[in-house]
Amino acid sequence: MAFNNDLSVILPRVLIVSRRSVRKNKFVDFVGEYHLDLIVGYGAVPVIVPRVNGVHMLLDSFEPIHGVLLCEGEDIDPSLYEAETSGLSPEELEEIRRLHASDTAIDTEKDSIELRLAKLCLERNIPYLGICRGSQVLNVACGGTLYQDIGKELSRKLPENQRVVHMDYDNYDGHRHSVKIVENTPLQCWFKDSLDDGKMEILVNSYHHQGVKRLAQRFVPMALAPDGLIEGFYDPDAYNPEEGKFIMGLQFHPERMRRPDSEEFDYSGCPSAYQEFVKAVIAYQKKLNSSTSIPKPLKLNQEMENRRKIIVRSFSLAKNLYTAGGGMHPSKVSELQAGAEFLESNTALSVQQEKRLKQMGATVRNGTNYIEKLKINEERERLARHVMGKMPVEQLSDLMSFYHMMGQICSEVLERKLHGIVNDISD
């Protein structure tokens, strides 16, 4: 049992957001086992993120995050990209909702969770694999757009011989269409043993009525359908699995490309996306651990060390005055200045600390000013509570998210500056 517990800590963690369905008149969250089997099989631990309300505000609780796999789900809310340029009439939109009822029911909570995770991966270079909807989330997160409906926005503008059926409800798992693989991309490497001489095509499955319209600038296409739709893309500057780099989106489902009544893959390269993704996840975890496991001590130069000693002496003197009571020799007044200045840069004290400060007010310079600042802070807090008490939940969530983001930015900038101090001292 101890061995298993150790493994749960050692193995890297891949976050996967669940999809909501209805079972026995109740909502249930699920993730397809094909994804889970491949992630586990290649050496990582899948961590399922439930798409229940409020989880988008709790993503810090899922740390450490070594990889993110986003897969199937409903259509992304059109308001999150340039849907107003689609030119679809209300009648056409209603027809789309009727034809694809299970996909057009927008799940705003899943959108919020997945877009935040995608942006987190992009900010921190966390390995990301997007399958089907997950590829669309990645494109939207980077400023790209989607076709609200491929049939009405793309297919009908093409000659009959160039049109592609991207969704076949009558042959759901068996339907395939061709894609042309772009040379010198990971897909070519993965499927090279299955490519016929002189042809760069494979057959892929297809379960979608939406797709990439404008590809975000950072990405390069890896596969194209005969109608021109991008079926796979990646960021070449963020792709090196051995170094923990992997940012990719696939519109098709390689994990479900299996022969009829068999678990055998259509092509030997089908599981490669998962294999290389987990390879990147493992490398990312190692890189993360090596940078955080041994904290570098902060070295002080002589000037900083002298300043530290002055502040320590100031507090020591104040403590002795408080403990002994009585007066203070005028020659010692200047020595308390450093401690008083240090206190002014800190946050407000607790009520108990305020009482103690009042007791020390006769001996610590600027004590009265500090108490006045404390009262101002208390009044600001009271007003803030009053204003926030009238704000709706959505505004409070956005406000909390904003200040959480600002806190992270401050932490990162502070860390860089501290490292800069250490580097300057070392030099």
Automatic annotation (TrEMBL):
Keyword Flavoprotein recorded: no
UniProt KW Transcription regulation keyword: no
Keywords of this entry: Glutamine amidotransferase
Name of the protein: Class I glutamine amidotransferase-like superfamily protein
GO molecular function: hydrolase activity, acting on carbon-nitrogen (but not peptide) bonds, in linear amides
Pfam family, one: Peptidase_C26
InterPro entries in the cross-refs: Class_I_gatase-like, Peptidase_C26, PuuD-like
Lineage start: Eukaryota, Viridiplantae, Streptophyta, Embryophyta, Tracheophyta
Source taxon at top rank: Eukaryota
